[in-house]
Design a protein that fits this description.
The structure holds two protein chains of two kinds. By secondary structure, chain A is mainly α. In chain A, about 70% of the residues lie in helices and about 5% in strands. In chain A, helix 2 runs parallel beside helix 13 (about 325-340), helix 11 (about 245-275) runs parallel beside helix 13 (about 325-340) and helix 12 (about 280-305) packs antiparallel against helix 13 (about 325-340). The radius of gyration of chain A is 21 Å and the shape is globular. The chains are: A mainly alpha, B alpha+beta.
Chain lengths: ~350, ~650
């Protein structure tokens, strides 16, 4: 928790710079952070067995919402991701970042591990349905994150290596098909851009070039807080959301990255300990999935900003401006805290005997 | 759960091994990220540092030139004139407020506190490279002063730009309208219609008249230029230039000579004139007097100037041709005759005795005729010619308000004429429902009677009146009055002409002769022995038709006489006249209203005559001037008339 707190404070400093020193934005983010913290602690009070019990219902609700998005969703920035409920607009795909690991873990925990063939297939189907629905929106980034979260569950549960090898071969074989029939043009463009950003310096490559210049010119110690010329002169796109890492790197240099990654490692280390200490398969799988999905987020965001992964809309956990992602993340942490604090009074004990 | 074949040992072992594999992968990810950053920030540091200092791309909007507005003979009515203004590019390193205050002092810009706070607001909301205009129309002296001191203000620049200029000033204001600075309201509207992006860099937007109505076509599409700049924001070179799409040029139907002439005739009289080609709805002139100069609005009108316009007793800001609601008075009598004939309430030959007044059955209230001793026997032609009120009181009484309302609606009263400017009033086409919702009162028979002479609750704009009369002059074919003749794309020279969308069957009558009969009535007004417009059109070289109208502004008590000299100026009658010529195939229709000037036949008719003379004899003398083989028609009570 201390690690989380530190990371969030760090975030506020970077955000202040990234937002163009706008106090309003900072205050909103502080409010959200506070709310998310309270939510996390509230979630931590719920015993884990309720999460397992609720998972099926949550999953079904989630799928229904995704279908509704497909039918009635609001179109924003060319993609249909939002569901307008009158008062609030919700993004059901975000919901699945929590629900997916919950559902898969709950399903797998019902059987002996490692899972049998039938169970493996079933769990893949559980992962597959929402993934396909999110892909249809189209939201490649979230689809990847959600499916990875589900996949990690299956992997931790003891997925046979044969499956992995077969999957890798099938995946390689399917690539041309996906490339030709599944990916939208703009998504293909992003891959091209990644391979050679200078091919389109004014269009799609602009973000990556600017972001790499920002990071590279930061050097070892950075240009100093609020001194980044790239970020302060508005060359960077979305400096306070997905590209916030570029601001951080420009102003604090490699040292800043090391501090940030240390904080992350500390949080992840703590999560791994919770994972290893968990008493029941459901808890183990769930904690493991949350922990490594968190790592995956970090990798994808920093990788995309520093130009080794295609640009997909993934915020930097705990640092980027924005409410939804932060709340989702804090709920995950809340669930893990719950698992940690409730482990002495395990409700699964009699079953496990 | 709790199956017999579970092996917790095995499960835990598998689980642990998998977690360690994940940890391994995570460590690998961190190492990859670190290596990449080490490569970027340590190994390639110099390279990126240089690029950061020298090589950045910024995108600047290129504002398209606004379309030029021409009259029908390609005389420029709205032009783009070069001006120099002072633009501030907000920069986080430099205090914007200090700069504004210093420049204000240095160049004597006379900015008020309000101006400064507006500029500060704009500097925060505008995107970085579009800049905020501190002052437009810099004088040469100001330019020189700034040039000497410019080193102190690296974030301020003098920018040459094109500004709208209206060479005919107050003559065309109510037609062309004007452009003015984009305000927060405009920004909201543009944002909600998704056009805001196209206005990046634009400072002006059409606020009135043609400029507003055809804003989208006149504005064009903003282009962009992508330049390399160093970290201080100075341009090194241009990488890419996306030219803007210039706005379309507009050719209006207005003839500026006729418009100018209208202003000359009006002098100090308040009122308006509309001249239309009834065959196609083209507006040849539309002038409202007094008018005002739109040019100050372009540069940003000062509050004192604006207050003077608002407080002017002549209300120059109102377009009296489309916004003023007036009682149409006797000018509408021929229109009502079409209704009477079509509804079989009257015939052309039916005789009617014109008493001094009309009384409703069972009522003592006298609806007086304009002539105290009445007109004696008359038929339809003479009723129009002498404008006999009692004839039309009786007609209105027998038709009833529902029928009248229906016909007025078909003539276009009480609704927009469809003219291509946004400033248009609806007027009132009275009905039972209208009175109920307006006054919460029942409709009385007594309300119907004055409608017959265009008084009572009925109000109309001059444009509606012109449109309705054009329909009659055209023998039932309605044309939407419009100002746009054609749009020209300046790059391709592609011409898009105005297209009429008026429905064809709004005013269908059982016999087209009804229109002809009412037209003959109007012909007699101008040419007949007793016609009210006879004097004004005496000696005309063409055959015209017309109708006068004198509208009461205040009602006169029972038993009292109208005496202009005793009334306050603003309570005197409004004078109206509608006329068209040549009679057989009209090329021009003129509708005139003069506020508080008295009689339509004495005051307004000469204005209509002058306008028609100017158009037919001076400006376009080679057009159709009437049938060389005139037709002799016998009508009504034994008279004959020569139709040309």
């Amino acid at each position: 928790m201390f690690g989380l707190f530190l990371a969030l404070c760090f975030s506020l400093f970077v955000l202040y710079s990234a937002s163009g020193q706008e106090a309003d934005m900072l205050i909103r983010q502080i409010t959200r952070t506070g709310a998310a913290f309270v939510l996390m602690i509230a979630v931590a009070q719920i015993p884990p067995k309720y999460f397992a019990k609720a998972s099926t219902y949550l999953y079904i609700i989630g799928v229904i919402l995704l279908v509704l998005v497909e039918l009635f969703g609001d179109i924003s920035k060319g993609a249909q991701r939002w569901l307008n409920l009158g008062i609030v607009r919700i993004q059901p795909s975000e919901f699945f970042k929590v629900v997916m690991p919950l559902s898969v873990a709950a399903f797998l925990a019902k059987t002996a591990l490692p899972p049998k063939l039938l169970h493996t297939i079933c769990s893949f189907i559980i992962v597959g349905i929402p993934t396909v629905l999110i892909l249809m929106q189209p939201d490649l980034g979230t689809a990847a994150l959600v499916s990875v979260a589900g996949f990690i569950c299956i992997f931790i549960a003891g997925l046979s290596w044969w499956w992995l090898i077969a999957g890798a071969i099938a995946g390689a074989a399917a690539l041309p098909v996906i490339w030709n029939f599944v990916l939208h043009d703009y998504q293909k463009q992003r891959v091209f851009t990644l391979l050679d950003p200078s091919s389109d310096p004014l269009g799609a490559g602009y973000h990556i070039i600017q972001s790499k210049i920002a990071i590279g010119s930061g050097g070892l110690y950075g240009k100093g807080w609020l001194q980044g010329s790239q970020s302060q002169l508005d060359f960077l796109p979305e400096p306070h959301t997905d590209f916030i890492f570029a601001v951080l790197s420009e102003e604090t240099g490699l040292v800043g990255f090391l501090i940030l990654i240390s904080l992350y490692c500390f949080i992840i280390g703590r999560c791994v300990v919770i994972t290893l200490n968990a008493r029941h398969n459901f808890e183990r799988i769930l904690c493991g999935s949350f922990t490594f999905t968190f790592m995956f987020y970090i990798f994808v965001n920093i990788g995309m900003v520093s130009g080794i992964l295609p640009v997909v809309g993934v915020p930097l956990p705990l640092i980027s401006y924005g409410g939804t992602a932060m709340i989702t993340l804090m709920i995950c942490f809340g669930i893990m805290m719950s698992i940690h604090t409730h482990k002495k009074v395990s409700f699964f004990k009699k079953d496990n005997k | 759960m709790g199956k017999q074949n579970r092996n917790e040992e095995l499960e835990l072992r598998v689980f642990r091994s998998r977690v360690f594999i994940c940890i391994g992968i995570s460590i690998l990810m961190v190492v990859i990220l670190f290596c990449n950053l080490y490569y970027l920030q340590i190994i390639s540091y110099q390279d990126y540092k240089t690029r950061s200092n020298e090589n950045s791309i910024k995108v600047m909007p290129v504002v398209p030139p606004r379309g030029i507005i021409y009259d029908r003979n390609l005389v420029v009515l709205a032009d783009n004139a070069p001006v120099y203004h002072l633009v501030l590019f907000p920069n986080k390193q430099i205090k914007t407020k200090d700069t504004i205050v210093e420049l204000d002092k240095l160049l004597e810009l006379n900015l008020s506190e309000k101006d400064i706070s507006r500029l500060l607001y704009e500097s925060k909301t505008r995107k970085r490279f579009s800049g905020v205009e501190l002052s437009n129309f810099l004088s040469e002296e100001q330019i020189a002063t700034f040039a000497v001191n410019s080193y102190k203000y690296p974030n301020a620049q003098i920018v040459a730009n094109l500004k709208r200029y209206y060479p005919f000033a107050d003559i065309t204001t109510h037609t062309t309208g004007y452009v003015s600075r984009i305000n927060q309201n405009d920004v909201k509207k543009l944002a909600s219609s998704g056009k805001l992006e196209n206005y990046e860099g634009s400072t002006e937007i059409g606020k009135l008249g043609i400029e507003k109505f055809y804003e989208d076509s006149l504005h064009g599409e903003t282009g962009s230029t992508k330049v390399e700049v160093n970290s201080h924001g100075q341009v090194i070179r241009t990488l890419n230039y996306e030219p803007p799409v210039p706005g379309k040029d507009l050719k209006l139907t207005i003839d500026i000579r006729l418009q100018y002439y209208a202003q000359e005739i009006f002098g100090h009289m308040k009122g308006a004139v509309v001249a239309i080609d009834p065959s196609n709805g083209e507006i040849l002139a539309m002038y409202s007097n007094p008018s005002y100069d739109p040019n100050p609005f372009v540069r940003g009108i000062r509050s004192g100037e604006y207050k003077r316009l608002l407080d002017n007793p002549g209300h120059p800001l109102i377009n009296r041709a489309t916004q003023g609601g007036y009682a149409p008075a006797s000018t509408v009598k021929p229109l009502l005759c079409v209704m009477g004939l079509n509804e079989k309430l009257i015939t052309t030959k039916g005789n009617f005795f014109g008493a001094p007044y009309f009384k409703l059955p069972g009522s003592t209230h006298q609806f007086r005729d304009w002539r105290a001793w009445g007109h004696g026997w008359m038929d339809l032609y003479r009723a129009i010619e002498i404008s006999a009120d009692t004839y039309f009181y009786d007609l209105a009484y027998r038709a009833g308000i529902n029928r009248i309302h229906d016909y007025l609606d078909r003539y276009g009263f009480g609704k927009k004429t469809g003219i291509d400017i946004s400033e248009e009033s609806l007027g009132i086409n009275p009905s039972r429902d209208w009175k109920k919702s307006r006054f919460n009162q029942q409709w009385h028979l007594g309300d119907t009677v004055p409608i017959g002479i265009g008084q009572g609750y009925w109000t109309s704009t001059l444009m509606q009146l012109a449109k309705a009369h054009a329909t009659l002059a055209n023998r039932g074919v309605t044309r939407t009055p419009h100002l746009l003749k054609e749009m020209v794309d300046p790059t391709t020279n592609e011409i898009t002409a105005y297209t009429q969308e008026e429905p064809e069957d709004t005013l269908k009558v059982t016999d087209p002769q009804y229109f002809e009969d009412c037209r003959i009535g109007m012909y007699l007004v101008v040419n007949g022995p007793e016609g009210t417009g006879r004097r004004a059109f005496f000696g005309a070289k063409y055959k015209a038709a017309g109708k006068s109208g004198t509208a009461q502004v205040v009602s006169i008590k029972q038993g009292e006489k109208y005496n202009a000299a005793k009334l306050k100026v603003e309570h005197r009658d409004n004078a109206l006249f509608v006329a068209y010529a040549p009679f057989k195939q009209p090329r021009i229709l003129v509708a005139v209203i003069l506020e508080n000037e008295g009689g339509g036949s004495t005051k307004a008719a000469p204005v209509a005559r002058a306008m028609i003379d100017k158009y037919l004899l001076d400006l376009y003398p080679n057009g159709y001037m009437g049938d060389p083989n005139p037709q002799v028609v016998k009508f009504g009570m034994g008279g004959t008339v020569v139709l040309q």
